[in-house]
Design goal:
By secondary structure, the chain is mainly beta. It has helices spanning about 65-70, 130, 165-170, 190-200, and strands at about 10-20, 20-25, 40, 45-50, 60, 80-85, 105-115, 115-125, 140-145, 150, 160-165, 180-185. A six-stranded antiparallel β-barrel has the order 1-2-5-4-3-6. A hairpin with a 2-residue loop joins strand 7 and strand 8 (about 115-125).
């Protein structure tokens, strides 16, 4: 379980293909604190640390299902990946409840500078059956973009905007996002539960 508060934007060092999987090797400031089998969110995708390397890096593996649902297949050496270790249950929930299970991808369609901050617009493939199951955005609701917990502005059926402050811009990979960039989305789990309960109730 995560909160969407990114700890660091780590640099990809190596990408190695292994069958249909890819092994992603990264360098971050807290690599000495990681352990094998530990869960870490990478651009919002929960992945398991599979090796700690002698060059001060660590490696995770993404399977084909993950690659199909996320932007991890687009990574290359030099790419920045947003990292968050799992929540401690005795800490504050500064963002919102994030599972690390990416629902779909979206494409950035516009970046609008706004006197020191930015508005980013994202568009995704709208599917009515998925919307009925809670895969939607609502005004002032929560959305996870590349693992970052954000507040929705101006939601449409297939798009929304988020406002990015300088700190978020500088400490995450939002500084690499531009029009045409693919990002990972995780919709709010509470909205999914409400939609599911409502659908089951309407069957009675």
């Amino acid at each position: 379980m995560f909160s969407g508060i990114v700890e660091e934007a780590a640099e990809v060092v190596r990408i190695e293909k292994e069958g249909s999987n890819i092994n992603i090797t990264m360098r971050c400031s807290f690599v000495d604190e990681l352990k094998i089998d530990q869960s870490v969110a990478h651009n919002g995708v929960c992945l398991t640390v599979v090796s700690l390397n002698t060059d001060g890096t660590y490696t995770v593996t993404a399977v084909q299902e993950t690659l199909d649902r996320s932007n991890l297949g687009d990574l290359k050496p030099g790419s920045l990946v947003n990292l968050e270790r799992s929540m401690k249950m005795n800490g504050r929930l500064d963002g919102h409840i994030v599972q690390g299970h990416v629902d779909t991808t979206a494409v950035c369609t516009d970046v609008e500078p706004l006197d020191g901050s930015w508005y980013y617009t994202f568009r995704y493939d709208f599917q009515p059956e998925m919307a009925a199951r809670g895969y939607v955005t609502v005004d002032k609701g929560s959305i996870t973009v590349n693992g970052v917990s954000l507040t929705v502005c101006d939601p449409e059926a297939d798009s929304f905007r988020v406002a990015i402050i300088p700190y978020t811009h500088d400490h995450t990979n939002f500084k690499q996002i531009e029009a045409g960039t693919k990002v990972n989305l995780e919709f709010d789990i509470i909205g999914k539960y409400i939609a599911r309960i409502s659908a089951l109730s309407n069957k009675d």
